[in-house]
Design a protein that fits this description.
The protein is α/β, with parallel strands linked by helices. The chain has a single domain, classed as Metallo-dependent phosphatases (Purple Acid Phosphatase, chain A, domain 2, 4-Layer Sandwich), CATH 3.60.21.10. The chain is built from seven helices and eleven strands. Helix 2 links the parallel strand 2 and strand 3.
Length: 232
């Protein structure tokens, strides 16, 4: 059994105080791994993550803390986050292999993809539409490589959502900018044990199932707490 604590959308400093209070309420939970699903800061305010980072290390410094970047951690600044917050294992379309609780766990981490770019992204990030189109297949290949290496459990950690099935609570006209349902096929074919994302601040569903894969929206504004997930 693997115990995961997961959250995202802290948007420091916006939710820093609330998040630190949630950490207090988490009490003596001893996870095997902590997963952070992006948008940890607001407007690329790299320094604002420091109090969250320090408290995470204080409480969970003995276990892997794994994060992906969100849209608020701006593209091109990934190495700066890695430099300043080096105890976090940042994944950017990458795989991390871990041995936890006797289980070979592979985490595939990515910002993820939207069903279509926002208008701002279309203007300022040429090539993003093609990236969003090809990313699901890339993630599927990564999952198959994990399985071939003998990974027993594969977790997909993204910032953007991976299905429309858990977006109730969000206005229907913005669903294209919250998730990409092409990942539903990836989850069905990739042998994933679990998918975790954030970005949907008002999503009312914490957990849905896509095929056989549980999908969790761990957005802190939506949940109001750090989500505890048991991976059997």
């Amino acid at each position: 059994m693997v115990l995961i604590l997961a959250t995202g959308d802290i948007h420091a400093p916006a939710y820093t105080s609330s998040f630190l209070s949630a950490l207090e309420k988490a009490g003596s939970i001893e996870p095997d791994v902590v997963l952070l699903a992006g948008d940890l800061v607001e407007h690329n305010n790299i320094a604002a993550f420091k109090p969250v980072y320090e408290e995470l290390l204080k409480r969970f410094g003995g276990v892997p803390i794994v994060a992906v970047f969100g849209n608020e951690e701006y593209v091109g600044f990934e190495d700066e986050y890695r430099r300043v917050y080096g105890r976090v294992r940042w994944l950017n379309d990458e795989v991390l292999d871990l041995e936890v609780s006797g289980t070979r766990l592979c985490i595939i981490g990515s910002r993820g993809a939207l069903n279509r770019p926002t208008k701002w992204q279309e203007r300022h990030m040429p090539g993003l539409r093609a990236y969003y189109k090809t990313l699901p297949e890339k993630v599927l290949r990564m999952s198959r490589e994990c399985r071939a290496r003998g990974c027993q459990k594969i977790v997909l950690l993204t910032h953007y959502g991976v299905t429309f099935k858990n977006l109730a609570g969000e206005p229907r006209d913005i669903w294209d900018y919250l998730a990409n349902p092409d990942f539903e096929r990836v989850l069905a074919e990739g042998g994933f044990s679990l998918a975790i994302h954030a970005h949907a601040h008002r999503g009312v569903y914490e957990r849905v199932v896509v095929g056989d894969t549980p999908v969790y929206n761990v957005s802190f504004p939506a949940r109001g707490r750090i989500v505890e997930i048991t991976l059997e």
